[in-house]
Amino acid sequence: MNFIKTNNTEVITQLRSELYQKLTAPIDAMWEQLYIASSQHYLIEIDHKTIGYCCVNSEKCLLQLFLLEKFNSKMEHVITTLIDSELITSARLSSSEPISFNTCLSLSKTVKTNTFCFEHTNTKLDFDPTLQLELLTSDDIPAVKSFLKEQVGMDDTFGYTENLVSRKEIFIVKEADIIIATSECRISDSQPEIADLGIIVNRDFQGKGIATKVLQMQVNRVLEVNRKPICSTTLENVAARKAIEKSGFYCTNIIFDMRFYVNK
Predict the structure, then answer these.
(1) 124-144: burial string, b at 16+ Cβ within 10 Å, e else
(2) Please, what sign has the CA dihedral across residues 60, 66, 99, 229?
(3) In this predicted model, what pLDDT tens digit does every residue of 192-231 receive, in sequence order?
(4) Domain annotation for the chain: domains and CATH numbers
(5) Is the Cα torsion angle 100, 102, 104, 107 positive or negative in sign?
(6) Which of 87-96, 128-137, 154-163 has the highest mean pLDDT?
C-alpha cells in the first residue's frame, strides 16, 4: 500500500464528491475550507490502483479519509498502515463519516469532543427588525481583520475576509465605529443545498442576545434562497451553543479528536 502526495485537484474532487454523497450530515464549511483544504492530500494506492484518498495536517492528524466502496473492507488496514508508518498520530473526524470514524474510534487510545455540528428545522423565525445587519464592504476589511485577531485570535493573512466580501457572504453589526458582531453566510459550492452560518460577537457585547438575533436573521436569509442552514461551535463555547439551539438548530454530528498509539 502506498500513500502518494498529490495536488491533483481533479482526482481529489471526484473522490470527495463520492464521499459527500455518503455523509450522514453536511460537512462544516470551516473544516472544509480552512483545515482540510490546507492539509496535505494523499492518494491511497494498492497495486498501482487508486482506492481512495486521505488528508493529513502538519501535526500528523488525519482530517479526512475516503475509500471507494469496494475497498471499504480495507479501512482498518489503511488506518493501521498510516499509524505504523507514522504518517498520522491522531485523527480529527466527524461522526457523519461513519466508516472511517468508527474505525479510528476502535483504534484510538483517547477520545475528546472537539466541535458540535448543527442542522436546522428549516422553519422561518421571528426576528428583531431593528437590528442593523449589513453586508461588509471592502472599506471595512482592515477593521474586521483586526476584530477577528482580537476576538478569536484569527490572523487573516490569506485573503479569507476578502473572499467572503467578494462573494457577499459576510455581514456586520456596528455601533458608530465599534464592531458589535460579524456574521458569515457561506453558500456552499460543494453542497448545493447548504449554507453555513457563523457569528462572532464582540466580548464587550456578549450576554445580550445578539448572537441569537443575528442567527435568526441569517436563518431566514438562507431559507429564502431555498438553502438549508447549518452551523457549528466548539465544546468550550457553551454560550454559542445556547444561541444556536435557541435559533432552531439541533446537533446532528460531532467532530472528535482521537489519539493513537504509534509503534516506534
Answers:
(1) ebebeeeeebeebeeebbeeb
(2) positive
(3) 999 999 999 999 999 999 999 999 999 999 999 999 999 9
(4) 2-113 (3.40.630.80), 122-247 (3.40.630.30)
(5) negative
(6) 87-96
Q: Partners of 228 in the beta sheet?
A: 194
Please state, in angstroms and rounded to a whole number, the distance separating the CA atoms of residues 72 and 57. 23
The conformation of residue 36, written as its DSSP 8-state character, comes to I
CB 100 within 8 A of CB 93: yes
Q: 116: closest CA among 217, 25, 18? A: 25
Model confidence over 143-181: pLDDT tens digits? Answer: 999 999 999 999 998 889 999 999 999 999 999 889 999
The C-alpha atoms of residue 129 and residue 164 are separated, in whole angstroms, by 24
- Amino acid (one-letter) located at 50: T
Q: Say if residues 65 and 78 touch (Cβ distance below 8 Å).
A: yes
Report residue 173: phi and psi, to 5°: -115, 125
3-state SS assignment for residue 82: helix
Q: How far is CA 226 from the centre of its chain?
A: 21
Count CB-CB contacts under 10 A for residue 100: 23
